Amino acid sequence: MKKLMTAIMACGIFFPVIAEENDYRLVWSDEFDVDGAPASHWNYEKGFVRNHEDQWYQPENAEVKDGCLVITARLEDRPNPMYRQDSRDWRRQRERIKYTSSCLTTSDSFSYRYGRLEVRARIPVTGGAWPAIWTLGNRFGWPANGELDLMEFYRTKEGEPIILANACWLGDNNRDAWDSVRIPFSRFLEKDPMWASKFHVWTMDWDPEMIRMYLDGELLNEIPLNQTVHGGGESHDINPFSNNLAGFGDYILLNLALGGDNGGPIDDSQFPLRYEIDYVRVYQK
């Protein structure tokens, strides 16, 4: 594969970029080079959404500044407009909004099947932070649509910070099945004590047989797609990551969650939290 080395400015820093030729071509990207609101191809999740997370999602917490998309998590204290005292829905049971953040997606504008997804980002690693780079299938409900988590960071129930690379699909007995790798964050700090202050590159290579997820060129997870066939329901025997269904693809999500089922106790003393994304690029052969 021929590689052309160039240099561009991102977040105030010049760094080399590899432009792929021959084997791969760039088919979609956002370089976040125009300050202000994110481009119109991003749409937003709103309110309390999933996993009993503590943040209220809203567009106002996302902006493009100095060559990066910045998702900011903030402390808040305001009424929950969805609150219902007698509701059994956890989204409506909360009387107050204590935190806000953003989740941006390409669900209305872009999805793809096979190729290379590359994201350069700097993530917050304080208590309660749950940043992610992931994709969801654009057909069926979860988990039949398939979920690919190129990056998640959070703390285990024992308080140990970890970085994850996962795939999820509908398995046997109509239950979610997972192929998940959980790497202690201490492993990265041992290599570089300043790891958290720097930008890093997450890459996912996806073809009809395999999905491979990398962090700074290190292979984290390798998922054979012959194991991800659905076990039942309307999508019986359909593989969300390898099929011939017209229009079936994955869209991209970037979000900073807080607390909830996996984020752990939130350290209010560290707010506001910043999750900075330098670029998002999709290549295909």
Please report the number of helical segments: 3
Biggest sheet character: 10 strands, mixed
Shape: globular
Q: What integer is the average pLDDT?
A: 91
Separation of the first and last Cα atoms: 11 Å
**Fold-level CATH name:** Jelly Rolls
What's the alpha carbon Rg, rounded to whole Å? 19 Å
Q: Which class do the helix and strand fractions yield?
A: mainly beta
Please mark out the parts with pLDDT under 50 across 5 or more consecutive residues, or reply none: 1-19
Tally of individual domains: 1
> Based on the structure given, which CATH architecture is correct?
Sandwich
Give the helix level as a range of percent: under 10%
Number of extended strands: 19
- The first-level CATH class name: Mainly Beta
Helix and strand element order = EEEEEEEHEEEEEEEHEEEEHE
In short:
The chain has 285 residues and is mainly beta. The chain is built from three helices and 19 strands. β1 and β2 form a beta hairpin.
Please, could you describe this protein's structure?
The chain has one domain: Sandwich (Jelly Rolls). 5% of the residues lie in helices and 48% in strands. β6 (62-65) and β7 (68-79) form a beta hairpin. By secondary structure, the chain is mainly beta. The strands form three sheets. Strands 3, 5, 6, 7, 8, 10, 15, 16, 17 and 19 form a ten-stranded mixed beta sheet that branches. Strands 4-9-18-11-12-13-14 form a seven-stranded antiparallel beta sheet. Strands 1-2 form a two-stranded antiparallel ribbon. The termini are close together.
List keywords for this structure.
285 residues; disordered N terminus; globular; single chain; seven-stranded antiparallel sheet; ten-stranded mixed sheet; mainly beta; 48% strand; Jelly Rolls; 3 helices
